[in-house]
Design brief:
The structure is a homodimer.
Chain A (H helix, E strand, L loop, with lengths): L8 H18 L41 H14 L7 E6 L2 H15 L4 E5 L4 H10 L3 E4 L9 H9 L6 E6 L11 H10 L5 E6 L24 E5 L1 H5 L5 E6 H12 L15 H38 L12 E5 L3 H6 L3 E3 L2 E5 L6 H15 L1
Parallel strand pairs in A: 2-3, 2-4, 4-5, 5-6
Antiparallel strand pairs in A: 1-7, 6-7, 8-10, 9-10
Helix pairs in contact in A: 2-9, 3-4, 3-8, 9-11
């Protein structure tokens, strides 16, 4: 860093304060879906290079400072986990769930420019932002009590718009209750209404990374009938930098490739310049856990969630959770505790999420706080 | 990382090979606009936390593990550098130039949904990808020999579409020749044609970070008449992770805020979950260089560029560069050397970019290689 001075004492102090804030806030996360048990220190040495996975991960670039090899291994791992047909899928590592969802919707729009998009009212707000950006007409569908899409309402609403191709944006783990929409039931509706021009994108940002390991296995992946799927890397897997994986049927991606070919590029990603550090983090994660480790990790989270539900019920907070969910919903607690434990509330309910790194001890501390406030 | 095993010997070998490849490729970059002299090791300790600058940098989030304070300082620094009116601007740190450009175009579309977008044929291909995604009608304008937009063609073309609001996507440093479109001349065209519904976005991905320090100062910023501006963080400033800064007039951002308010969010960023590490890197960079250091850095690059041009001319390669450009254009050299030095070529010309971290010695090595191949 030629011409650079060391940080001043004042700057150092500011940095120190930031560090302490982040450290203390990390110790009291209970409401955000972020794993906290990662350790990528073995990879820090890569941070001295201008790494950039420019463009399509499957097309070599003249720029050689990248981690495409690792990126492809990560994609391969998840394609298998999400039961994509061999050699019939494509994907890339994104900057987060939102970009993956935008990409899925973009693919859907390119294939069916005149489609109507359906999504449940429990859908994350970023999706409507994306639909607005992509200028796609859309209808919100009622949700059931548990946060899952109301299949009857979906059926009725599609029936009234049978002239239009159908895009369903399915939630595999909603923000508030971790409800999973059932992709097979959605496919049944298409069948019943003789809808052939249809597309399902699975927003599996939250639950995609552990849904393959729970029993019964939810209907959410390629074998169940999705066309594309987005999952977050900084949630269950863990990363200091938001990231995600988007996978789609290869035929869909090829359709986009054609529509952008006149631009003179084979780059069908949204970003262009792309983060090459997060693919390395995700590679490290899948290598170090393997399927077996991820399974154990899932079981541990489910155990902590069962424990949290039990303890919250013991103190009369009407806690419940969806089948195989690591999110526990309970009666809203006071605002200062919500702030301290970074808990989100909605409609009289508060929720906590038992991500990797959240121990039973942390649940106990919350319970103690709640009891302390009650007295 | 509970349930994780250490990397196997095979995985470690793969990682080692990647490291060596990246190291050797970094030693021979001459054609990509990436600084190579950064050192963020003082900040690595932040990488053990799940940092996320979710949503708008100016609105506090319930999620406390972020670096918004530093992000705002970075934005403030560049708002001043780009002569935005005090308190009349807004912005955020993006995942790269592409996202910033998309954001600028998105703002333009929200303000003028029926606009025609004009951009020169030297514009980066990602822009047409963005225009396609945003579904905005657009026309490519001829460029002059040096890569700058042809103002006569722009004038004529706008004149033929005076019924439509005008969005000009201006290049402040094109990919191949580092040409800068003159924002004042573009404003003059609007004036001449009595165009009042107009918007200029400056794609200053490449040259934005050093253009304030060259003399004469190019016409490219808010004081010169842009509505939004995007600059890359991983180019002149330097970062192992692609990033960028987008700034816009506050009134424009407020317009988007209104149009997404019905979604029930004040989040007007594109990403949602946002990288909080790159804002920290950029903060560190501006603190350690300051205006003075960035000026010296700019001068050094210009010196190396002048040297490269001279040396390439000495061996008969017809080298030239735009005023105050750090990009040198010369007669196309053979493919194997292009590959080795990661140089891009277009239309019979090769270009190299004298980014921070590129020494005269590296130029000498290239010259030696070229002479070696000739013999």
């Amino acid at each position: 860093m030629q011409y650079a001075k060391p940080l001043t004492a004042e700057d150092k102090l500011e940095l120190e304060k930031l560090y302490e804030k982040i450290q203390s806030k990390t110790a009291t996360v209970l409401g955000y879906p972020v794993a906290m048990d990662f350790d990528y220190s073995e990879l820090y040495r890569f941070l001295k290079f201008p790494i950039n996975n420019i463009g399509d991960p499957f097309i070599e670039s003249t720029y050689g400072i990248g981690t495409r090899e690792m990126e492809r291994e990560v994609l391969d791992f998840f394609a298998e986990l999400f039961r994509a047909e061999e050699n019939e899928w494509w994907g890339y590592i994104t900057n987060g769930g939102s970009e993956g969802n935008m990409y899925g919707l973009y693919l859907a729009r390119e294939i069916f420019p005149k489609a109507m998009v359906y999504y449940s009212e429990s859908t994350h707000y970023s999706v409507q932002k994306n639909l607005h950006l992509l200028d796609m007409p859309n209808i919100a569908i009622r949700t059931q009590e548990n946060g899952e899409i109301d299949y009857n309402d979906l059926h009725d609403t599609i029936r009234m718009n049978r002239n239009m191709p159908v895009v369903v944006f399915a939630n595999i783990g909603t923000t508030m209750t971790e409800a999973r929409d059932d992709v097979k039931k959605i496919r049944d509706i298409f069948k019943d209404l003789a809808i052939h021009h249809c597309y399902i994108h699975a927003d599996a940002a939250l639950s995609g990374a552990y849904s393959p390991f729970v029993d019964p296995r939810p209907a959410f992946d390629f074998a169940d009938g999705v066309d594309s799927i987005a999952v977050s890397g900084h949630k269950f897997l863990g990363s200091p930098i938001p990231c995600g994986i988007v996978l789609a049927k290869k035929t869909h991606r090829d359709r986009i490739a054609n529509s952008v070919a006149y631009i003179g590029t084979a780059d069908t990603t949204i970003s262009g310049s792309r983060n090459g550090i997060t693919p390395l983090f995700l590679w490290y994660t899948i290598k170090r856990y393997g399927i077996e480790g991820l399974k154990l990790r899932t079981e541990k989270c489910l155990q902590v969630a069962a424990y949290a539900m039990e303890e919250l019920n013991k103190i009369g907070l009407h806690a419940w959770r969806n089948t195989n969910a690591i999110t526990v919903v309970f009666s809203e607690i006071n605002k200062s505790l919500q702030l301290k434990w970074q808990l989100a509330s909605d409609n009289g309910n508060t929720h906590l999420i038992c991500m990797p790194g959240i121990s039973k001890e942390r649940i106990d501390l919350l319970i103690k706080d709640i009891l302390g406030t009650k007295n």
